Amino acid sequence: MVVVATDERQAGIVHRVASRMVELHPDLESRVQQYADALTVPARGSSFQVLPAVPKRLEGLDFTLAIVDEAGRVDQEVYEVVALATGKQAASVVLAIGTPGPELDQTVLGRLRAHAIDHPDDPSLVWREHSAAGFEDHPVDCDHCWELANPALGDFLAEDGLAAVLPPKMREREQFPAGAVVPAHRPARGGMATARILGRLRRRHPLHPRRGRGRRCL
Ligand SMILES: [Zn+2]
Question: Which one of 73, 179, 192, 209 has the lowest number of neighbouring Cβ atoms within 10 Å?
Answer without folding.
Answer: 209
